[in-house]
Amino acid sequence: MAVVIPAGHSKTNIFKQGLNGADVDFDHTWQVLEGAFKEIHTKNASALSFEELYRNAYKIVLKKKGEELYNRVAQFEETWLGQTVRGDIVKNLSAPLMLADGTGRALATQTERRQAGEKFLKSLKGAWEDHQVCMGMLTDVLMYLDRVYCTDYRHPSIFAKSMGLFRDQILRTPVKPGMATLLQILTSIILDQIAMDRDGEAVDQFIIKSNVYMLEGLYESDQEVEDEKLYLRSFEVDFLRSSAEFYREEGESLLRESDAGTYCRHAKKRIDEENGRCRSMLSEATTQKIQRVVEDELIRHKMKGLIEMDTGVAHMVENDKFADLNLVFDLEARVDPKKPELTKAMQKIIMEMGTSINNNAIAASQAPAQASAADEGDDSKEKAKAGSAKAINQQTAAALKWVEEILALKDRFDHVTKVSFTSDQMVSTSINRSMADVINTFARGSEYISLFIDDNMKKGIKNKSEVEIDATLDKSITILRYLGDKDVFETYYKKHLCKRLLLSKSQSLDVEKQMISRMKIELGNSFTLKLEAMFKDMTLSEELTNGYRNHVKNLGDVDPQRVDLGINVLTAMTWPLEAFKGASDQHSDGNDSSRPQSQHVIFPPSIDRVRLGFERFYSDKHSGRKLTWQSNMGDADLKATFPRSKGGKPRTHDINCSTYAMLILLLFNDLPSDQTGPPASLSVEEIQARTNIPWNDLKRNLQSLAVAPKTRFLVKEPMSRDIKAGDVFSYNEGFKSEFIKIKVGVVSAGNKVEGDRERKETEKRNNDSRGFAVEAAVVRIMKQRKELPHAQLLTETLTQLSAQFKPDVGMIKKRIESLIEREYLERLDDAPVPAYRYLA
Amino acid sequence: MASQTDYVTLISNDDFSFVVQRSAACISPAIRKMLDPQSMFMEAKTNTIRFDNFNALVLEKVCEYFYYNERNKDARDVPDPELPTELVLELLMAGDYLDC
User: Would the CA dihedral through A577, A582, A584, A588 be positive or negative?
Assistant: First the structure.
């Protein structure tokens, strides 16, 4: 009655006293027990009385003979196992199996080996199960021994002891002296069976599982420490080693013989197989370990080779094998969450593809230029001109193509990431980084992107739905995001936007504004400040023009002949006006470019009156502002009447042309037109003297007025494509056109890729503005910190400017030097590291 | 293998039979093992155990204790069972023997 009195050490004495009277003869009692044990082992227990055996064991223990009983039982089991059971098992062991190594295997065919192995496993399993059952019964009968004697003396229980005996007698004893033990044989047989299973042969999984179960039930020592299971200590080690060998070889031969996709599928299959194998044949505890082995051998060590195979990742990307890529991704994700090999491979592929796009773009933009250079060598200037004009077009096309290709590249890899890499963070980050690298290694990236937007604004968005426009804008922003030198982009964008606005080339101002608001979100307020100011100027100018018109009306000077004026007043700081000058300077002889041209243009009186009128009007409204006329950017609508041809009416045409072209045409208006004599004419020199249009612009405008077939208002003498000094022009009376409205195109008015010279200038300007930005940043930082070591100043400057561009350290150093010279900063002489102080 | 009955018979060394509920008797691990149908001993087959070292007086008290225990399994503050003083030692030994 345990509730009242727990069984304990101190109580046993009482019981002994109580039993003193009953005499117990140990040998006799043991004989009874031994007989019964034999019956149990031969499965004949039904005639035995549990109570009797229990009572006998109880008595022996009470008589303090527990130790002797314990030893007798152990001895009994040892003899039983060592002689009867082992003999049975060895009988089932065919000769080849005993060798427990490769030679044994070589001697028999696979089927023979499998059957012999199964037979052995079966007999071992039988012996083990019998032993378990019998020992279970024995333990039950000897419960009192376990409870009192084993606990008091800290002996392993009878059951544990007998398991140890099984291990020692059956598994650890050599089959014959000098030969392998049954455990070794067992291990090699199981491994052999597993190898067969891997080769696809059907094996008896259940029997293997039973044997593994046995190994799991046995321990290295009688103490039964959990992680010293025989299975873990002996079998699993061998299993993992042999598996590693197997997969290493298999991996190598697969890499040699098959393609990457197959390899991946195979590896995945193997991993799943091993999982299943652990469940059905081995122990769940091994699942993790064998997975690791397979992953190590088939993936981690082979990943590099796999990715670099002919049919590796590059091949998959090229042929859109998303499923295979997904497999590669899965495999690598298994072994390393960072997936270094795959990301490296992807980056390499992107770099390669990107570089080839870049190279294509460079080649496309250079090839015709070279061709034209070759033409120039032929001394045929005319051809060269045409060639270079074509070259510029071709470059623009190359720019557009480059952007499209970069976008396509990005789309493609986005798709790959989504489909194959489950939008994995690591991979997509690295892909993005590579995209940025690709875009930033391309020197003309900023210009090309801006051109792309320009092209879309002018033509691309025509007849497109809002959704499509949105998509286009998104695309542009996407690339823009990668761009490192955002300030360069800003310069180009400003320039292109300026031309779009002034020449009214933009399809929709709404879209322009959307684009800018997107940039604002993406790149910040300061980036779009000037762009927005440009729009503001445009709106203000419209109001101004209307205001001026009303003003003129109110003057009461309603002269139908009066020239109407539309004006755009632009803030000089915001608008990249030099872009226009630069474009017109491009081919000039050099002496022209130094002189500001706009002021020198001579307007005819009718026009000049309007100009002065507006200047008065403007300075009334805003005192202290100076207007500079940019006549090279304007355009004019003329109404021209041509004399009647034979039998016809006089024809009137609305002509839209540049301001310069208007000036030239007006000159011919004033010429006396004599019906009978030869048409009055003007030479190039005369035209220039009367208008003071820069030579270069003059040449271009004359070309469109006298050479272009649709708008030949003037007749040129001698008739040729090129305008040379000494050419003479006259009014073309015989001009005919079926259209009422005629637009005079001016050569190269649109936005194109810059020429080399232009680019150099842009770069120079850019460097200058970067210099200012750097100085401003340095001063800002120093103003705040007062004193700062050199290195820290550098890093802070870099971080401040990183949103706009990546300044190089040399430039920063130079700027600091110059700030010191100008006494904004001074060096600290006593500082341990180079440092500066801000001088207020 | 014998079918598992609800009641088992316990017999004392002076041949008194006590039929008790199996669940009550199985409070003792020793009895439980003896009656376990998995073990192939005689007791399990016949659902009968003969105790050679208890007389009827002791076995009766043991059976009483089985029921007492079963009844008060989940209760708290249960009054101690009444035990005749002259049987105390023998009951103590029986408790040790049956491990309960």
Answer: positive
SS3 state of residue A113 = helix
Which value does ipTM take for this structure?
A: 0.86
Best interface-test mutation with B: which of A15, A51, A135, A143 has the largest number of B CBs within 10 A?
A51
Dist. CA A217–CA A63, nearest whole Å = 33
Residue A3 lies in a domain: no
Report pLDDT digits (tens) over A8-35: 444 444 444 444 445 567 788 888 888 8
Residue A695 lies in a domain: yes
In a domain, A229, yes or no: no
CB-based contact A51 B39, cutoff 8 Å? no
Same domain? A606 vs A743 = yes
Residues A321 and A345 in one domain: no
**Quick check: A4 and B80 CB within 8 A?**
yes
Closest Cβ–Cβ partner in A15, A50, A147 for B43: A50
What is the nearest CA distance from A18 to chain B, expressed in angstroms?
Answer: 8
pLDDT tens column, A504-520: 777 777 777 888 888 88
Q: In chain A, helix, strand, coil percent, each to 5?
A: 70, 5, 25
Q: Per-residue pLDDT tens for A92-118?
A: 766 555 554 544 555 567 777 777 778
Q: What is the reported pLDDT for A671?
A: 67
Q: Is B52's CB within 8 Å of A51's CB? A: yes
What letter does residue B85 receive in the DSSP assignment?
A: G
User: What is the spatial distance between Cα A394 and Cα A386, in angstroms, rounded to a whole number?
Assistant: 12
* Cα A504 to Cα A507: distance, rounded to the nearest angstrom: 8
Choose one of A335, A353, A374: the last residue of a domain. A335
Asked if residue A124 lies in contact with residue A211, where contact means CB atoms within 8 angstroms, the answer is: yes
Q: Are A38 and A110 found together in one domain?
A: yes
Q: Do the beta carbons of residue A365 and residue A399 sit within 8 Å?
A: yes
Domain CATH number, residue A797? 1.10.10.10
Domain that holds residue A375: 337-443
Q: Which CATH superfamily is domain B7-98 in?
A: Potassium Channel Kv1.1; Chain A (3.30.710.10)
Do A53 and A172 sit in the same domain of this protein?
yes
> Which residues on B lie below 8 Å from A134 (Cβ)?
none
The answer to whether residue A16 is domain-embedded is yes
Residues of A in contact with B49 (CB under 8 A): 50-51
Task: Give yes or no for B69 touching A (CB within 8 A).
Answer: yes
Report yes or no: B43 at the A interface, CB cutoff 8 Å: yes
Which residues of A are less than 8 Å from B36 in CB distance?
A: 140
Residue of B35, B41, B58, B63 to mutate, testing the A interface (most A Cβ within 10 Å of its Cβ)? B41
Verify whether the Cβ–Cβ distance A50 to B34 is below 8 Å. yes
DSSP string across A392-439? HHHHHHHHHHHHHHHHHHHHHHHHHHHHHSTT-HHHHHHHHHHHHHHH
Q: Domain count of chain A?
A: 6
Question: Where does a domain end: A499, A524, A559?
Answer: A559
Q: Within this chain, do residues A768 and A799 fall inside the same structural domain, yes or no?
A: yes
Question: What CATH number is attached to the domain comprising A477?
Answer: 1.20.1310.10
Q: Of the candidates A300, A377, A395, A371, which has an alpha carbon nearest to the alpha carbon of residue A341?
A: A300
